[in-house]
Structure formats: structure tokens, C-alpha cells
Amino acid sequence: MKKRVLAMVLAAAMGTAMLAGCGSSSDDTAADAASTAASETEEAAETATSEAEAEDGETAETSIEKIVFATNPEFPPFEFITTDGVIGEYDGIDMAIAAEIGERTGVEVEMQSMEFDSLLVALQNGQIDATIAGMTVTDERAKTVDFTTAYYTATQVMIVAEDSDIASAADMEGKVISVVQGYTGETVVQDLGYEYQAFKKGTECIMELLNGKCDVVVIDSATAEKYLEDNSGLKIVEDEEAFGAEEYAMAVAKGNTELLDLLNNAIEEMLSDGTISELSAKYIDGE
Fold first, then answer.
1. Alpha helices per DSSP H over the chain
2. Torsion over CA of 245, 267, 112 and 223, rounded to 10 degrees?
3. What is d(CA 69, CA 83) in angstroms, rounded to the nearest whole number?
4. How confident is the model at residue 216 (pLDDT cuts 50, 70, 90)?
5. Angle subtended by helix axes 202-210 and 221-230, to nearest 10
6. Which of 24, 119, 192, 222 has the most CB atoms less than 10 A away?
């Protein structure tokens, strides 16, 4: 379309220059007319190109000036509190991703802390614009919110004492199981039909395990690795048959297509250029 518009402008301008040259009795007048026509041609061509680019969506801009995210900073390495975070006191994979989105889009990013099971309620009530909290995409959640493109794939694992005889999910039957309220681990244990105790924080679950008050903690794999780094005497048990892969994504209010598109464009770009992989490695492997 750009070429068609530009050609039309050039043709019109050339015609003007030719008429100016033929209708004047003075060579200087004709030259001036031709020069003016050429100048107008260049300006018109630039205008036409800009308009064509706008129509093609190449210069599309967003009206969004600020994104108020909410997270639950009890889920390392994805979100946690530190003295020098990437967004205020907040740090982790998700926080680094949110900060990068702000940089790439030129939109201000603000982070708020909430209990995990309050995140979607706050989103639906308009208290926040989006969630970023290692949240797994599920059909049930998708009924009330719109999810972005998934940016991370994880799975559930079991954390047990090093001398534990738990070797699979089936071995949890009759054991004292700890999970974080609202996390996928709780849903998985429910689906298995086991009784469990739920806590607000993963650290509380780990303390129960270390103090011998529970036999196993079911939680996301990357977070489990982080807890093992900080606590001795524990090990991770995997069961791929019982715990399938899950995808993390951000959530926005139903119908908020402008924000959803902005986030998706940034996420897809960061997945394509390897930024998210680099950030994940930084926080998980310390690279």
C-alpha cells in the first residue's frame, strides 16, 4: 500500500511541474515552479509513507501509561522480597519479566503484594490491571480472566526428608501432606483424593517438614529447587505420571484486549529472542 500511495503522489507532483514549465514564458519561473513542485512532492511522499505505515499498524501506539501488577512474593525464584529488587523490593523471574515489559513498551510498572488466592478476585474487582505470580493456566481460571501467552513450563514435585520412603505420588497415601493454599499443588493433591494441610506460604510448609510435622510438601519444581538450596536434609521426588506439565501466564480482566495484546507482544518477543530463558537461568541456576 505504501508504494501505491507514494506513486500516486509522485505522479501528481510531476504533472504539476510539467504544467508549470509549459505555461511560463520565463525559464526562471519554470525552474522555480519545478523546484516548488519537487519540494511538495518530497513532503507529500513523507506524509503518504507515514499514513501508510500507520494504516499497516507499524506505528501503532498504546494508550496504556501504567500497569498495576499484583503478585504473591512467597514463591522463589519467581517472586520474593529482597533489599534490592528489580521493582522496588520485589525480585525474581516474574519481577524481572515485568520490569523488562515496562522497558520494552515504555509503560510504567507498579507491583502490589497479595495473598495468592486473592489475586484473581482483585483483578475481577478492578483493583489491579494484571497478575504475575507463577500462575498456572487452568480451564477453571480461564472462565473468569483472560490469560496471556504462556511464558514458562513447570511441573509439581514432592519435597521429602532425605531418609523418606516416599518414591512416588502413590506413596503419599496416609501421609501428612502440606501444600500452599491456592497453588497448583493443592489442586493436584485434591485430584489424587488425599487429605492435606494448607498454608499461606511455601516457607511454612518447609518448616513443617523440617520440624517433622509433615511427611511431604507438594509444590512447583523450580521453587522446590530453591528451597533445597536453602535447607539441608531434604530431597526432591518426581512422578511424571502423576504430575503433568503446567504453563505459567499472566492474567488480565476479561475483555481487556488492549492490555492483553501489549503483554502478549512483549512476551512473544522475549520468548523469541531468548530473554525469558536468560532471566530464568539467572535466578534458577545463578548464571
1. 2-23, 27-56, 93-105, 119-124, 139-142, 184-192, 202-210, 221-230, 257-272, 275-284
2. 30
3. 20
4. very high
5. 50
6. 119
